[in-house]
Amino acid sequence: MFNNCRDPPSQILLLILTQLPPSFPLTNEYLHKKFNEFGDIKKILIFERGKTNKAFVEFYNLKSAISARKQLNGLNIQGGKMIIHYSRLKNLNLEIVDNSRGTDYTQASSNSQNSDSILHSKTDDNIRVNLTNHISQSSSSRANSSPVRNEEINRLLDYDDDDFDIWKQEIQLNLTDMHPEIQTLLRQKQSKLLRIASIDSKVTAKMIYNVFTKFGNIEEILYQKQLQKAYVKFQTINQAIIAKEYLNNTQFFDSILRIYFEPLQPLQPTSLQDEYMIYYNENCTQKIMPLSSNLIITGVQDPTEISELIKMFAKIKDIKIHVNSLQLSMCSIADTLKIMAVFSDYEFKNQKLNIILK
User: Fold this and answer.
1) 10 Å Cβ neighbour count for 89?
2) What is the pLDDT of residue 143?
3) Could you tell me if 285 and 224 are in contact, meaning their C-beta atoms sit under 8 angstroms apart?
4) Rounded to an integer, what distance in angstroms lies between the CA atom of residue 341 and that of residue 330?
5) Sequence-ordered list of residues with C-beta below 8 angstroms from that of 237, at least 6 positions apart, any chain
6) Alpha helices in the chain (DSSP H)
7) Does the pTM of the predicted model rise above 0.90?
8) From CA 126, how far away is CA 301, in angstroms rounded?
9) Where is the RRM domain positioned along the sequence (predicted)?
């Protein structure tokens, strides 16, 4: 079950549908049929960008949205997948232009509002949908100059603690009535210290470092292997936010990672089995890329031999062998994480391999 809860519960759900067959007719009517069984729907808006489709579904009440997300998150649709997040929008206004298709179910004539002309775009700036009370917007200059992936990372950093406090006041949740794990999630404050739970017993502290360092500079790691948990302290809060966003609830070997923000505290081993490491990253900068199933491995002396070794650890969809590098397309994100964990800085024939997310 996918359960990536990056935003507080909301009556508006954000759907991300990937790898749908080209022949699949994604329509408002299809989404309405899927989601209407959980409660009355107010509005639906679809906008499409290449191989990834995104849509908003707005319910009349919060309970319906929570129930729909719980039941449909991770749904397989003819080989494609639907991931559901809570949206940060407060209201959804439909103005059908460019990349958008929407239906307002509060109006009898709404079904005639579907757009006949859908333009496909590669930047967020081209999706001109008027969504009122949006908590944050990217500047037009950034949208015009940065690729979609950089916009995605910028979006992750827009959310702050003030937004969370406003949300709590508006919906007036009684936290004591909720499951303890839900209470923990809702009370989190952003921090540069992450707590990672449910770690597979095969994982080492070095593997944790190899994966998490792809999303920022790490200062400390405390790995309590007997408790199946670790603490990772980043150099900045933004780096911790990005790492948590991409790695929370992902499969890492045979376990699903659970990641939480932790208040800053000294990290100290409590047993002989604990692994504690300190890293020095002065004046060290790196280009952070979103988690992807596509990898490039450089520093390869014998590409054919190392490719056979890699195949022993993870499933590869496609591999391209170059003179001193490999280009890999993995079958899943879980396979990507395995390769990053095992082969980052792996010394092969006196040369260290370097893994780059593409």
Assistant:
1) 20
2) 37
3) no
4) 14
5) 190, 191, 192
6) 28-35, 62-72, 140-145, 148-156, 161-171, 180-186, 205-212, 237-247, 303-310, 333-343
7) no
8) 43
9) 13-89, 192-264
